[in-house]
Amino acid sequence: MTEQKRAPAETPPPEASHRIPDDAEGSVYRFITVAAKRARQLQSGARPKVHAQSRKLTSVAIDETRRGLVPFLDPETAPPPEEEPEEVIDQ
Fold first, then answer.
1. Does residue 6 sit within a domain?
2. How far is residue 77's CA from residue 46's CA, in Å, rounded to a whole number?
3. Model-level pTM?
4. Cα separation, 90 vs 14, whole angstroms
5. pLDDT tens digits, one per residue of 27-85
6. Which of 3, 24, 30, 82 is such that its CA lies 20 to 30 A from the CA of 68?
7. Distances from the Cα of 33 to the Cαs of 5, 8, 26, 68, 80, in angstroms?
């Protein structure tokens, strides 16, 4: 039997899928922090922003963050506290 060589599957590097769309720096650390804080919100009773296939709240939080549905503030570019929206995750 002759073996055929397969082309490697085109998958993005692991960190490419762990980026927030609106994050200019593309920080993986920021992605993890925002997703973790969103998971805590979901565990505390917040409603999911997407209809997820997974029941795991951590997976739902990662999916929401990956889609850019979780607002966050960059501490370096954040507006003064009196102008902050109420339900934004602060890093």
1. no
2. 26
3. 0.65
4. 25
5. 888 899 999 999 999 999 999 999 888 889 999 999 999 998 998 877 777 767 665 55
6. 82
7. 41, 32, 13, 14, 21
